[in-house]
Write a structure and sequence with these properties.
Elements (H helix, E strand, L loop, with lengths): L1 H30 L8 H70 L6 H20 L2 E3 L11 E7 L9 E6 L2 E3 L2 E4 L1 E6 L1
Parallel strand pairs: 2-6
Antiparallel strand pairs: 1-4, 3-6, 4-5
Helix pairs in contact: 2-3
């Protein structure tokens, strides 16, 4: 019972304090004179104080703008890093899958001796696998024209009556790129 009385008295006191503060602030607003006379020294002090406050406000605004710009740059940089990391991950995974693609090509070279239905099933799997890789940005480096050291790796040079000097004669291993980045150069034989 005593605790309830104390609690109700505390609530009443806090309500009374709020009412007192409200009436005091209302009275002080009413007591503000319309004109205030200052000495020149007091005026200069107030002027300096106002200038100091304005300078602090301007500094705070500049700091907030700088922080906002830094945060925007941070966000853009992270978005760029995220995008580059994702693309690098795609290139890595496709690079690791290229030996499987080579295995399919070798299987097709020897498909004459196996059951036709089984070979058709393997060709269908190969097609699906390639379509999935193409969706991820894989493309084959063309190896039917002139040797380009940026895209091709010359394994050997041979004499050729059919091809001109510098043209690709044979492809040992296909080269691939993902979007614009080469992930594996083509291994080729070049005509002398």
């Amino acid at each position: 019972m005593k605790d309830k009385n104390k609690a109700s008295k505390e609530v009443k006191t806090s309500e009374e304090n709020q009412e007192t503060e409200a009436t005091t602030s209302a009275k002080t607003e009413e007591n503000i004179p319309s004109e205030i006379k200052l000495t020149s020294q007091e005026f200069e002090q107030l002027k300096k104080h106002i200038e100091t406050l304005q300078k602090e406000r301007d500094d705070t605004v500049r700091l907030a703008q700088r922080l906002q710009a830094d945060f925007d740059n941070f966000r853009k940089r992270n978005a760029s890093i995220h995008s580059e990391s994702k693309e690098e991950g795609v290139r890595y995974v496709i690079g690791e899958l290229l030996p499987v693609l080579d295995g399919f090509d070798r299987a097709f070279e020897n498909s004459d001796t196996i059951d036709a239905a089984w070979a058709d099933g393997i060709k269908l799997l190969h097609k699906q696998f390639l379509e999935m890789l193409y969706k991820c940005g894989l493309s084959e480096i063309p190896s039917d024209s002139v040797f380009d050291p940026a895209c091709h790796e010359a394994v050997m040079q041979v004499e050729s009556d059919i091809k001109e000097s510098g043209q690709i004669v044979d492809v040992y291993r296909k080269g691939y790129k993902v979007k614009d980045r080469i992930i594996r150069h083509s291994m080729v034989t070049v005509a002398k």
